[in-house]
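User: Here's a chain of 288 residues. Predict its fold as tokens.
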Amino acid sequence: MSKNSLVKLAHHAFNPWWGYKKFPLTWKLDGLHWIESQTDPAGYWESHAQSRFLSDEHWNTPLPWNSTAEHRNQRERVLCAPTPDLFQDHDDLPGWRSRLLNLIEATPNLDWLLLTRHAYAIKRHLPQGYTLPRNAWLGVHVPDQHRADRYIPYLQAVPTAGVRFLYCEPLRQPIDIRRYLEPRRGVGRIDWVVCGGQSTNGAEPMHPEWAEYLQWQCEQAGVPFYFKQWGNWAPVEVVGIEAAGNRHIIEMTRCDGRPEDMVRVGKRVAGRVLFGHTWEQFPESRPL
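Assistant: Prediction complete.
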């Protein structure tokens, strides 16, 4: 997940360090679903054995953001660690994670979006008995049903007074998250869902029904929904015949048997319109 793919969700972006584990997954087409053709590998640490930590000057960057937001009497969102992953296992990270938590607490006018692929490790890497502050928005990456059912319970179990969210990009198949959107005693509810298609090299089309189904589930549960992008492919009916031109088209089929032509036009042309609307719903901030 790149900085460019996420930054629209926030006013600022902040990397506390560089270095991350890569997960070289491969996918194959199975009917209407893109499915993972191998299990999660162990991954590997980029930048060899060491991550690259940044200067005190860099770490002080969010402080003026916080002051400006306070002066304007508004809250601003910070996308934190769009390149590294805060909760991956690496020996040199514990002290820097603690420094980041202290920074989040010291900037109460900023909402920090903390997104991870390592949901199972979140509690292990937080101080014992620690509750994330209200301005920490904690999210997990769930592109398919397998990861939704595997990772969302870990997210729900994390002690936090802030927002819990799902990042469903690139969306690979229809996902049923209804049970996670309903409030239940003793279980943290999901407060926000972000959805989008793939825009990297070799991107595959996202079936429109997959995004529509997520939006419907959120609407039924009263949970904010954010549609970030179609990605490199979009429905012909969204971009129009003229924009489609002679470009590459893939025909998909809706559940009722109707065809749905998807055309590769690039994410800028594909846009962000779903059901004739631009979905930019956010959860309410929970200031300290």
